[in-house]
Amino acid sequence: MSSAPINAIPISPASPLRSAAGARPWLWLLAVAVLLRLLSLPLMALTDHTEARYAEIARLMVQLGDWVSPHVTPGEVFWAKPPLSTWSQALLMELFGVNEWSGRLAAWGWALLGLWSLDWMLRASLASVQRAAALTALMLCPMYFICAGAVMTDATLMATVLLVQAAWWRAVTAPDAAAARRAGRVLAFGLGLALLTKGPAAGVLALLPPVLHALWRGHWAVVGRILKDPLAWLIWLGLTLPWYAWAEQRTPGFLQYFLLGEHVMRFLQPGWKGDRYGFAHAQPIGMIWLFVLVSALPWILHGLAAWLGGRRAGTPAPERLGRDLWAYALCITAAPLLLFSAARNIIPTYAVTALPGVVLLWLAQVDAQRLGAARHWGAGLIVLLLTALGFLWLGPKEALRASDRELIRAYEKACGAQAWTAACGLEYASKPDHSAFFYSAGRLYAQPEHAVVRYQVLDRDTQRPHGDALACNKHLCLYVAP
Q1: Alpha-carbon distance 82 to 338, whole Å?
Q2: Do 293 and 423 belong together in one domain?
């Protein structure tokens, strides 16, 4: 049977936790952080390989008009991911034009859904100051902030997974069966979206924390109520199965590659050779722990300091959240650690689904009565200022070094109206990166083999002096061909 909502501490009508005053500094920090991420979207060039690749996939979806099977080139379908993230990116490019801002805006929107989901999850369980601090801390986790404005699938994954996990907690704490049933249907909706974002891996990431929580705390009545609801099954199956069936019918072989290759071989075989769209990573075993640590480093350090300062007195950490929510936070944190500790083919963004759990465990280290103090929200202000420094000043400079944008612009400026014609061609000495195709609006795909005037993109270590180059990035330089 579901338990009643549990507050971390008794809250009387006169308690300062009932007032918005304690939450106000955190809410201001949250608003500025969200606005900062929005303003930063057009400031950085799309970087290779990941961000430019997904931006080009979305651009091709708009160009080709194929909204069923994403393409990585005009003639090659992209089987590595389902299309929900690409749909959102391509839709915004269709509405606002093909550029960095429209491509990244979808991630920003998904990040807002993630924040809303966390707030909805905690609304009946924690005081307003605790919820405001948790939302701000999540937004200012370095990895969450990065994903909130990057053309990748990770913001979509985070939002859909967190929606599932928030719905589980709402079902556990529902005051009656009808409310629990509604929460279960939201869970099914989020699960369907997750399966359209990264497939079965997203489903496991979403459902593992509720399963662990049910095992630990004995919430089997909640599990049974959700599983017995036919509408919940209809929601997630109705969202998911039509696209998978249609994609396989359009491009036979998709399901075998996607289910076996991307979800089994990728994680079990280091240096997997079957990757059609990139290269397999070979991280040390257990690297996911370091990724999680770095992804939430400011709040892990702040929580450690708070624990060291209050470990001899005060309310135990589990009691500050309520033991059931504290246990669930551990389950959310543990899920990606359990899944990926033995995997070597992983990247830092795999840590993002652990962040809501880490943030709640951080919150458990701080007395809610003192969360409104400047020494706590001041830590958030410092993190915000450092984030602004990185994304408004350092980030744009580094992004240019990892993108072909300036090479393409220099070529187009040199050729003028004759760019991309037989009168003034561009050739790459090696396979172009995805950003070259994106910033050329796909015209690089059909470059003529012979041109009257030719420009070449060569490796930086070529014997030609860099002073002769029209533009360079970290790896390549643009020259007039001899």
Answers
A1: 24
A2: no
